[in-house]
Design goal:
Order of helices and strands: HHHHHHHH
Strand content: under 5%
Oligomer: single chain
Radius of gyration: 16 Å
Structural class: mainly alpha
Number of strands: 0
């Protein structure tokens, strides 16, 4: 488990390396990177979904620890390209809110899905999140740097979710299960509030 976690964290870090390079290549690209990085961490819906992806991946264990978050980041980049290109994706905001509800419920119920199914679920939601990031890219932002920014922020939130899962697991079987259920439940309820426009 520990070696798989380390491998997953290294894979996410490697995926984020290009983003670090983009952050230091000039004023325009730096600005684009900062805008991109700030977008996922500026909304509760994005934060909750990203962290739940990490916790979900940790719960599944094995190859899912790196495959599930990596799938989200890569498919999200595709969704971002659709948003930048102005390609219409219906129900984006609804899809984002539902991602918080569904992923929170999955974590709360400790759903043991096959890795391929988990990748499909997070990939579907990643399109909505990515489209929102891409559609809201400032006109003066450098596209590649902006994309690198939101990909890196997302990867770091996934790592935060993996770390949270690890810490919860270290709390002991009984306490860890309770905390996981509670965290997932709070996220799911928050997602319902976002969906209803209350948050």
């Amino acid at each position: 488990m520990k070696s798989a976690l380390k491998s997953g964290l290294l894979a996410l870090a490697a995926a984020a390396l290009p983003a670090v390079a983009y952050a230091h290549t000039g004023v325009g690209q730096t600005s684009g990177f900062i805008h991109g990085f700030s977008h996922p961490v500026s909304g509760l819906d994005h934060i909750l979904a990203m962290v739940m992806v990490g916790v979900f991946a940790f719960q599944l264990g094995g190859r899912a620890i790196w495959l599930v978050p990596t799938t989200f980041v890569l498919v999200m980049a595709f969704g971002g390209a659709l948003g930048v290109a102005g390609v219409n994706v219906p129900f984006v905001e609804t899809g984002i809110a539902l991602s918080v509800v569904v992923l929170g419920a999955i974590v709360a119920l400790n759903v043991k899905a096959p890795t391929a199914v988990a990748m499909g679920v997070v990939g579907l939601f990643a399109i909505f999140h990515g489209h929102a990031h891409g559609a809201e890219m400032p006109e003066n932002a450098a596209g590649a740097a902006y994309a690198a920014g939101f990909m890196m922020a997302t990867a770091l939130l996934h790592v935060g979710g993996l770390a949270l899962g690890y810490v919860i697991g270290r709390a002991g079987e009984r306490q860890g299960v309770f905390v996981t259920h509670a965290a997932g439940g709070i996220a799911a309820i928050s997602g319902v509030g976002i969906l209803a426009g209350l948050i």
